[in-house]
Structure formats: C-alpha cells, structure tokens
Amino acid sequence: MRLASVLTPMSEENLRWASQCGVSDIVARCPGEELSDLVEVKNRLAEFGLRLSVLEGGLPIEDIKRGGPRRDEEIAAMKRIVRNMAAAEIPICCYNFMAGTDWVRTRLDAPERGGALVTRFDIDQVEAARSLTETADAVGEDRITAGELWANLERFLDEVLPVAEPSGVVLAMHPDDPPLDEFLGRARIMNSLEGFRRLVAYGDSPSNGICFCQGTFAEMGVDIPAAIAELGPHIAYVHFRDIRGTCEHFVETFHDNGPTDMAAAMRAYRQVGFTGPIRPDHVPQLAGEESGSPGYTMLGRLFAYGYIRGLMQATEPVEP
Fold first, then answer.
1. pTM surpassing 0.85?
2. How far apart are CA 160 and CA 163, in angstroms?
3. Which of 123, 141, 175, 289 is deepest in the core (most CB within 10 A)?
C-alpha cells in the first residue's frame, strides 16, 4: 500500500508537508487533455520526491453520464486522456457516475471532536445542497432513470476500456455520495454492493476497477471488511474515511472517531493483497482553518497521514 493525498492547494508548503509526513503518491485533478499538461504536473511533483498516481476530478464526462449532445466528443476526449496517462505513467483514472452533481452535503460546519468542523447530510434538508454543492449550477430540471444511466455507463465502458486495457490504465469508479436511489430527480446506480457487482462483471477487464470510498460504503450500511474482501480483486484505489449514520442522515468523523473498525479495514486490504494508493479523503477542519474548503483543509490531513501510516505499519506482514 502507498500513502496518497490530494493537496488543496498544491503549494510548495503542502508538497513539502506531504513528503515529510511519508506521502508517496499524489492525486490530482485532470489538468488538461494533452500529454504536456500531465507531464508538467508529474515533473513538479518529482521535485519533492512524489509521484502522480491518480487523476480524479476535472474529467470531461458529464454528457457521457447523461447521454447528452457532447457525449461522443467527451468519449473521444477520455480516450485521449487515457492514452496520455499511459504515456506519462499515471496508472489510475478515478471517475464517478453521479449525473448533475458530485458529492453532496447539506451542512459544512457540523461539530466534531473538540469543536472541529465536518460535513453533514440530511435528506430532509436536501434543498440546501443546491447552494452548497460544487456543481450546483449543473442541477436543473432534467431527469434520468437508472436504466438510462446503466446504458450510458455501458456505452462508455465499451468505448474506453479497449483503450485503457492495453495502456495499463485502470478506470476506478467512485460510489455515489450519498448512495441514494435518487437525488434531485436523478437516479443513482453506484449506490449499493449490487451495483458494484454489476459494474465489475461488465466487460471482464482488469481496467474496470473500483475506487473503494470507505465512507460512502459505510453510508450504504455494509460491513466494511466484508465488502473489501468481496470486491478486493477490483479495488484499485482507496478513499480512507468514516461516517456516523445512514445514507439519509450522516455526519463525517475524524478517522479514529467513527464506528468503523479501521484496523479491521486495513487488515482486510492486506488480506486481499491491495497494493495501490490509499488517501485520507475528507478531513475535519481544525482551529484556524474555518475559511478553507470543507473536507479539504491541511491540518486534519496531517493527523490522518499519521493515523493511516500507523495502521499500515501495524498490519504489515511479519517476516518469518
């Protein structure tokens, strides 16, 4: 396993902190479709002894999800990105199939331990999501069914997996967050173990993988170590976090302050032979960081690095 992180912003100070705390891999938003865009980011990270392992976010994929007028153009762009990822030796492309939104919360300042701030979701306050969600401007009156989403996903996989597989790039699907059956009039399909079973069975390709977001699977109410054991061969990348509650009402927690047995989860990754990047994902905002981006401030991330490294070391196989 390799400790990974997003850095917001990807400043020199944050890059140094990450390197000093034992991070080896960086997750970045797609900087553009050209090889030069990827190489520029990769070379900057290399100056700090870090490698670019995952592209996540910023992908041209919204019309692919909805079957919109730019679908074919976006599919062609995704093929270019995958080929350029291979040329730049970036092995994982993390995407999701939430149409019209990304991850959604209804409150960004819920209290956690010691007054730290975390995000919260409550289904009965869903209108608040229109103003709090990054992609709120994409939320309109159009609707989409589960059947349409599955058809659009299969079209995408049919087109892009044949490019990804010989390139050695894995497409890692992130679950819907929250994993509801429907959100703002649009169906969701990556919201259950059954959905992920259907996904990984499609196409029988090693490039058809999973981003195992622990917090979102916890929102589904599944047993986390058991889910890791079942989906393990397909897990390419891990978001390591926890929540308290259900998919309709939950709050995020410090990594060591939620209901999930995080040590058991780490042992499960060891048992399935997972060797990919694992990152803290969302973290609480600590004192003095209230003006930062909720879930993506740096001090809570530093705490998470140490916690995750401790679990990784504690579960390392003992040499005979």
1. yes
2. 5
3. 175
